[in-house]
Inverse folding.
DNA sequence: GCCGTTTTCGGCCCGACTGTTTTCAGTCG
């Protein structure tokens, strides 16, 4: 069983326990475990085999035993028993807005409702309002939430689109009179790979004015809720937006709160309590009732004797402990990137010629660029034959001569890892390239042992410098290959093969958890844009987000190095080694 | 159910918003 499957079981368990009315803390424990497993870079099965389940944050004796049972037998007796007490489909009702565990339990016990369809039928028939404490308005709200649920694609928004939408809205907010600041918060600011809804925060004195302006925006479909500090909107395309408005002197605590993660916020509040302070989005409150306001996030952290913690690692996955011990890493920044080692020209499936791409890279301040067009077997993207590789070298040399030394252009290739693990170019071609990126594009559905062996074989090939988008996943569209990632990382570290964080927002592959695990095995990372158009070079910012979420420093990322260092490193690897087996 | 510079037991964050209630429960983040 994969991490995701186990996480799903625990999520269901949490839902059913909650509907049953169990202790919220027990429910929380299952939710936390599910959440942690989902983002965990290491394979649960491997951790299990190593007898290290208890080292996973949020996994104690009871949950470790349940993971053990699940991995051993594929089922969980506790879950089966629970399903006998509470209909499993009730857990779906919790997906409906304004329906929580209490209402779900009442719908079930008092009306026999166990599915979303039955809920909708009852709401349409006006039967929900007959329950005590429920009126017409509650019923109407639930109907609206049901519609929203059906309309909303089940998937979260990819980070790329979320950044775009947020940028648009923030620009508008900043133009509203009296708005001093407007910033993104939530999982968008934390650079999660997908975003559930947009969290935006504004510093302004005149809250009423901001609220009125926003409610009149043309793309607002409806206002879901509006209060003193918080407005909740649904845009015409179904996207949900949370907007907080706070006075500037409280902006720091408010931004911190709106950014989360929830687990991180809870940790900080607990630390505040240890100091006889109560922390909320409005600031600190002392025992005597006096307030301590924080205009900047730094002031909140300082009051807790912590350095400012970057949003990308605010997940309660060790950052608070690291901060307390003064061991926060200095995370890699976009400005640290000096080159791009993954880009396509019109020699294969890119949109522009090498010169245009190179000039764009130069414009963006890059010092080097690797042209990595596809290899021959990928016919549909005009993969290069060995002859064409040779011809391309002449063009690269020509562009290099005319651009001069300010941009170093490397000739690489994104070489297909064939179904048997051999590479799509013979050694005679590979050895002439400056950089070999090996990638999977086909036969991604091979069984675990086979696809893992195939990648391990590619990694062991002495010509391979980097593994491109290692799992091959497309977010929301194509599942990752079923790789034994630990084996891949171990081998990559041993053979000094760089693991790519592919920064295309549809890929983000490695993901954050994997990248962090890879660093744990001693792998070197690279952030590649996989640009097929000059505009795509800017994708690298998404890759930086992933790298930061993985706690990567500048030293961990190959393309933060200066061009001569990178070339020296690649050149050193070019020499045939004793482990050469072709 | 988890967890511990104090605890192996007894804690476990804080507030906004809504609707249906005359004081609060449920949901959400």
């Amino acid at each position: 069983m994969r991490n995701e499957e186990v996480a799903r079981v625990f999520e269901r368990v949490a839902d059913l326990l909650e509907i049953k009315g169990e202790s919220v803390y027990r429910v929380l424990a299952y939710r936390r475990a599910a959440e942690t497993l989902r983002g965990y870079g290491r394979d649960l099965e491997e951790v299990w085999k190593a007898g290290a389940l208890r080292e996973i944050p949020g996994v104690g004796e009871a949950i470790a035993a349940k993971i053990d049972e699940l991995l051993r037998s594929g089922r969980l007796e506790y879950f089966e028993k629970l399903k006998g007490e509470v209909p499993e489909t009730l857990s779906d009702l919790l997906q409906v807005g304004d329906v929580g565990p209490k209402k779900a339990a009442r719908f079930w016990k008092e009306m026999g409702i166990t599915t979303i369809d039955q809920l909708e039928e009852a709401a349409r028939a006006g039967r929900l309002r007959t329950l005590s404490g429920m009126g017409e308005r509650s019923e109407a709200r639930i109907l609206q939430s049901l519609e929203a649920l059906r309309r909303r694609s089940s998937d979260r928004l990819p980070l790329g689109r979320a950044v775009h939408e947020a940028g648009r809205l923030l620009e508008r907010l900043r133009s509203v009179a009296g708005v001093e600041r407007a910033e993104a918060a939530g999982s968008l600011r934390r650079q999660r790979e997908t975003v559930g809804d947009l969290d935006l925060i504004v510093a302004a004195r005149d809250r009423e004015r901001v609220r009125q302006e926003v409610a009149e925006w043309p793309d607002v479909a409806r206002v879901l809720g509006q209060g003193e500090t918080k407005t909740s909107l649904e845009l015409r395309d179904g996207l949900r937006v949370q907007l907080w408005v706070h006075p500037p002197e409280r902006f720091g605590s408010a931004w911190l709160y709106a950014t989360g993660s929830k687990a991180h916020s809870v940790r900080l509040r607990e630390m505040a309590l240890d100091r006889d302070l109560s922390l909320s989005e409005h600031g600190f409150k002392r025992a005597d009732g006096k307030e301590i306001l924080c205009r900047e996030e730094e002031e909140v952290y300082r009051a807790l004797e912590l350095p400012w913690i970057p949003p990308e690692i605010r997940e309660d996955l060790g950052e608070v402990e690291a901060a307390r011990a003064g061991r926060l890493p200095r995370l890699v920044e976009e400005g640290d990137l000096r080159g791009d080692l993954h880009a396509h020209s019109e020699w294969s499936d890119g949109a522009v010629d090498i010169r245009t791409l190179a000039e764009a890279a130069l414009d963006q301040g890059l010092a080097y660029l690797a042209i990595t067009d596809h290899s021959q077997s990928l016919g549909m993207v005009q993969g290069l034959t060995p002859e064409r590789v040779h011809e391309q070298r002449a063009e690269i040399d020509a562009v290099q001569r005319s651009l001069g030394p300010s941009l170093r252009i490397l000739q690489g290739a994104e070489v297909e890892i064939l179904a048997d693990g051999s590479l799509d170019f013979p050694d005679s071609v590979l050895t002439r390239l400056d950089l070999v990126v090996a990638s999977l594009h086909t036969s991604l559905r091979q069984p675990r042992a086979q696809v893992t062996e195939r990648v391990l074989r590619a990694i062991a090939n002495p010509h391979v410098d980097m593994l491109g988008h290692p799992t091959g996943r497309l977010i929301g569209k194509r599942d990752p290959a079923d790789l034994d990632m630990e084996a891949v990382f171990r081998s990559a570290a041993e053979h000094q093969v760089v693991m790519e964080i592919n920064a295309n927002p549809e890929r983000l592959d490695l993901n954050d958890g994997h990248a962090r695990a890879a660093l744990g095995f001693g792998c070197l990372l690279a952030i590649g844009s996989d640009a097929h158009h000059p505009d795509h070079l800017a994708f690298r910012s998404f890759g930086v987000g992933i790298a930061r979420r993985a706690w990567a420093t500048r030293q961990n990322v190959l393309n933060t190095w200066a061009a001569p260092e990178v070339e020296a490193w690649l050149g050193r690897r070019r020499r045939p080694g004793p482990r050469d087996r072709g």
Notes: Chain A has four domains: 3-151, 157-246, 257-324, 334-573. The longest helix of chain A spans residues 3-20. Chain A is about 45% helix and 15% strand.
